[in-house]
């Protein structure tokens, strides 16, 4: 059992709770981005909560069964926040429908030299070049095996060490270990901060990688539920590359695709001293590009596999746009650091209102209805 949550006194109303969340975020932003992130993880490990009560909001119109898994709502926490799976239960209290831990690699590694994370405050954005810093998959799984909340789905994002000479074998060994406790596993081939990683997005190399992974994921015939195996791709892919990736993924037996990781491109309207830092850009400026690529992936998939939409979601409007572009599920990260943990609940409630405004009974009815429009956008 972990330490009991520590709460500040006299915060009995939602209004005061929201005030505390805002003040906490302001205080954390006084520190450099990575220091702030590490402090947040330490606070959560100590039981210091940003909210006195759970922020779960379960609504039947947004609950879904995807990959044969039950999601209480479609908004998840993307990989990268809880890199080593240290605070799953604490994060689950914020109200996500699922949490993706990692990225975990076979061996521990420090990642790239600091500084490696940069806020673009005016744009609600971040540039990072972390480089898969983590304590290794064995340590991460040890943390995650102790989680108490089993109603929030657990995804484990796996990658490769920077110095590996056997990447496919490393992915397979990570999958072998993660399979024991994960509800699903994501194969990350799209971080821009590990040299050579994105080369696996080439059709031939991707097929060589996915075939043994999928065979292993489906190998336990006695299991009623084969392990869902997802693929996370970049937003910087050409149209033809997306079509090729989808065909390889579907042919191999992949369960779904996550669109997208961070981008190495920079929108021309970025106005921040950190805009030219090397690394992947996330947050609001990624929204249009990632949503276009999401729509293209959805159309290429032809409803054969579900898509998870990530990139620039910061409110219920952008979340609903992702759904209508083709996402069956969503993930957040950067916006959470700017707006706080109540964002999961706010988005879920907002999605419910949007469905009612469109006279739709369930979120599944909205998936992909604007895909053609988004796929043809000039972004």
Describe the structure.
This protein has one domain: Aldolase class I (TIM Barrel, Alpha-Beta Barrel), CATH 3.20.20. Helix 8 packs parallel to helix 9 and helix 9 packs across helix 11 (343-357). Residues 1-13 have low confidence and may be disordered. By secondary structure, it is an alpha/beta fold. Helices cover 35% and strands 15% of the residues. The strands form 3 sheets. The chain has an 8-stranded parallel barrel, surrounded by 6 helices. The protein is globular and about 50 Å long. The chain has 12 helices and 13 strands.
Largest sheet, spatial ordering of strands: 3-4-7-8-9-10-12-13
Total of helices: 12
Question: What is the beta-strand fraction?
Answer: 5-15%
Structural domain tally: 1
Order of helices and strands: HHEEEHEEEHEHEHEHEEHEHEHHH
- Biggest sheet record: 8 strands, parallel, barrel
Averaged pLDDT, please? Answer: 91
Distance between the termini: 49 Å
Q: Specify the structural class.
A: alpha/beta
Class, according to the CATH hierarchy?
Alpha Beta
Shape: globular
Report the CATH architecture: Alpha-Beta Barrel
Question: Which parts are unreliable, with pLDDT below 50 for 5 consecutive residues or more?
Answer: 1-13
Detail the topology: elements first, then pairings.
Blueprint: H1 14-28, H2 33-45, E1 64-66, E2 69-71, E3 75-77, H3 88-92, E4 98-104, E5 117-120, E6 125-128, H4 137-144, E7 153-158, H5 167-178, E8 184-188, H6 203-217, E9 229-233, H7 239-252, E10 256-259, E11 280-283, H8 287-301, E12 307-310, H9 316-325, E13 329-332, H10 334-339, H11 343-357, H12 371-375
Parallel strand pairs: 3-4, 3-13, 4-7, 7-8, 8-9, 9-10, 10-12, 12-13
Antiparallel strand pairs: 1-2, 5-6, 6-11
Helix pairs in contact: 5-6, 6-7, 7-8, 8-9, 9-11
